[in-house]
Amino acid sequence: MLGLLILLFIAVPFVELAILLSLADHIGWLPPLVLVVLTGVVGASLARRQGIQTLARIQGQVNSGKFPSTELADAGMILFAGALLLTPGILTDLFGFSLLVPPIRGLYRRGLAKYFRGQVQVRYGTGFSPDAEETDNDKILEAEVISRRNDSVDSEPSARKS
User: Fold this and answer.
1) What is the pLDDT of residues 99-147, one digit of tens each?
2) What is the DSSP string of 53-85?
3) 100 φ/ψ angles, rounded to the nearest 5 degrees
4) Which uninterrupted H or E stretch holds 115?
């Protein structure tokens, strides 16, 4: 995973630069420059507006006693979109704008949820801590993080009463 991130941090700027230079060769340097500045300004404005709306939805969910999982995922994607839109480049702008379109963001959210469901193993059961006081109404959720590289399981699962 670290290798992939390093590759992305090296490859993406070179690809972005190649695209911008190619555009500058074909249509001149001013239109790509204006495009980069304009997408940064418009994207930051859109990300700010959607971020404020999402924060209001988070507060509403919390005030009603619900966990705002969807809203928190949206907030993270909007923050990431803002960072991408402030980064000069065509590909990063396209990906950033796609994160600001709610239906497309929903597709990304479902894909991320599916990915993370495969990374976490959840088991239900009764207490597994000898120090825990239990009643018949207690439900304990045990989760273990499984490393995909060496298929080892964390030896000390954590417990949370709900």
Assistant:
1) 999 999 999 999 988 888 877 766 665 555 555 555 555 555 566 666 6
2) HHHHHHHHHHHTT---HHHHHHHHHHHHHHHHH
3) -90, -5
4) helix 102-117
Query: How many other CB atoms are found less than 10 A from the CB of residue 84?
Result: 22
> Identity (one letter) of the amino acid at 14?
F
Place of tokens 């249509």: 27
Strand partners, 69: none
d(CA 64, CA 53): 17
Tokens (6 digits) for 102: 């709610």
3-state secondary structure of 8: helix
In sequence order, what are the residues at sequence separation of 6 or more whose Cβ sits closer than 8 angstroms to the Cβ of residue 40?
85, 86, 88
pTM: 0.69
Predicted confidence band of residue 148 (pLDDT cuts 50, 70, 90): low
Largest CA-CA distance found in the chain, in angstroms, rounded = 74
The candidate with the shortest Cα–Cα distance to 100, out of 92, 112, 67, 5, is 92
